[in-house]
Amino acid sequence: MAVIRLASGQSHIVPRDKFLAQLQVFLSDDSSFEVEISPTLESHRRPNSNLVALRNPQGEAEITVLPGHSGSQFISGTSLFATLSIASGAGGETRLELPAFEVGGLRASTILRVIPEGDQVYIQVGETGGDGSLDAGSAGVRSALRSSIDRDGLPQGQRRDLTLLVDVTSSMNYSTSPECFGAMFTFAAGVLSSIVADRRVQLLTSSASSTPELLQGAESIQALGQREFERREVGWGVELSQISPDEALVVISDDLPAEVLKFPGMVHLLSPRPPLLPQGITATVFDGQMIKAVTEHNDTTLRAPTRIMYDTLTRGEK
């Protein structure tokens, strides 16, 4: 038996006249699920079975997995695993191993598309839903957001470059506890994983000597909560003209400095205390309740603030 591992968005081609397959699905929490398949693809599934037989594609078809027993959404942190075994003649088969799908907080996940063209069938993997390297805290934040927006994030081609701007003044040092500082980065990583994906993310500090530092995805953002920033500066010296107005700007600060107010693009502030905000700029305040919600993965409490940050940073996108 040949085994082929596919990544998100990848395709595998098989002869159309030999398309006879069996899909196997598992959820990490062993909960029940339903499978919806376009009528252009013949399918059969026994009740409560994790196996689905597939054959005779007559047009483009999608295979979508939904929570079982009328559940409105997958439980936070749930992963979906699937394989597709395809008969290859003479008793042999090819097994396609799909990547893990991060489905927590979603109402449905399209895991495969079956596209017949001429005498071939293209089997295309759906979007896996995120960054498997996120820790439990950031993954919980992402699940809360996805349950609010009812999708994984922005489609490819609509995602944004982003600058994360961190206040390193002495005021920030006195106003922010280590727990609060860490919660801010955990929250930022969870929300931004649905916005930036494969786009460029850079770090700047408020220091005049700050130079852009390229971050490798959302997991690098969550790691910043453990970094020892020297928060001893007096005032802001960073030059924000180096940031494109087309980018999203996330500011971690105990105040909203005049330099940021001049930025023409989209801005969201993460702050340990309520700031005075002009129209068009939003904020998440990390008081004791918010910090607890992040550390305990409280989906109900996190849903509204994650949506506010998402809506601000993706303004104008659909």
Mind explaining what this structure looks like?
By secondary structure, this protein is an alpha/beta fold. The protein has 2 domains: 2-125, no CATH class; 136-313, Rossmann fold (3-Layer(aba) Sandwich), CATH 3.40.50. The protein contains 7 helices and 18 strands. The chain has helices spanning 136-149, 170-175, 178-192, 218-223, 258-261, 288-295, 299-313; strands at 2-5, 11-15, 20-27, 33-37, 41-44, 51-57, 61-67, 79-89, 92-97, 101-102, 109-117, 120-125, 162-166, 201-205, 213-215, 248-252, 266-271, 282-285. The strands form 3 sheets. Strands 1, 3, 5, 6, 8, 9 and 10 form a 7-stranded mixed sheet that branches. A 6-stranded mixed sheet has the order 15-14-13-16-17-18. The chain has a 5-stranded antiparallel sheet with strand order 2-12-11-7-4, with no helix packed on it. A hairpin with a 2-residue loop joins β8 (79-89) and β9. α1 crosses α3 (178-192), α1 crosses α7 (299-313) and α3 (178-192) packs across α6 (288-295). The longest helix has 15 residues, at 178-192. It is elongated and about 75 Å long. The protein starts with a strand and ends in a 5-residue tail after the last helix. The model has no long low-confidence stretch (mean pLDDT 86).
